[in-house]
Design goal:
With about 240 residues, the chain is mainly α. The protein has two domains: about 10-15 and about 110-215, no CATH class; about 30-100, Recoverin, domain 1 (Orthogonal Bundle), CATH 1.10.238. The chain contains ten helices and four strands; from the N terminus they run ααβαβααααβααβα. The strands form two sheets. The protein has a two-stranded antiparallel ribbon with strand order 1-2. Strands 3-4 form a two-stranded antiparallel ribbon. It is elongated.
Amino acid sequence: MRRFVFLVPLLAVLAASLVAHEDRKDKKGGDSPPRAKDEARPAGKARPLFDAAEFLAEYDRNKDGFLTRDELPLRFRHNFDKLDTNRDGKLSKEELEKGVAHLGPSRKPSDFVFVLIEMSDCDECCAEELQVVYDALRKMDRNNDGKLTAEELKGAREELVQKRIDAIFDELDTNKDGKISREEARGMIRRHFADLDANRDGFVSRDELMKAAVEKPALKKDLPGKGAATGPSDK
């Protein structure tokens, strides 16, 4: 059974926000790896994204040509073991060059809130977006204890999915018989109709759609393919 990935649009926005966040922080001299200095660049040669020699010289306190864990800036230490490919407890210039992708801060989905706060160029608009998040979290906190439990999250998810299913039926169930026929199906519902129609009666019921929406896939390959639409509007 395939699961409808209703949150794909949100995750796409989050990913784009984090990329933009990293780019802007890098330009401001934030927590991205230092870039080579302009004056060290030969005329007409493109400026490298990361100069391992310069980075090494800047943080190599004992000047032994390597960086130990305590010499590496704190914001990058979470990936020290991934950078230290020969497991000798220190980082060479070559290891820094090959592992530059690991010289970045850890990111979590919840960081999108901080991205909104820090990078907003329109406080009024950003406040409106954060208010939506704040209101949703407060509504999820059913007992008003200021904490979210797994059960509260599950309840909120089921309520959200139910609303989305209601919207799908409002659009596709044209004869209002409480089920979607193959002829009525559109978009993702049509493409995965055979999977959704669990009892093989030629219709997709609310219960079948709910089961598909909340059931966790056993394998990643069970998810809809890359670029699949997440609603019935893809015709």
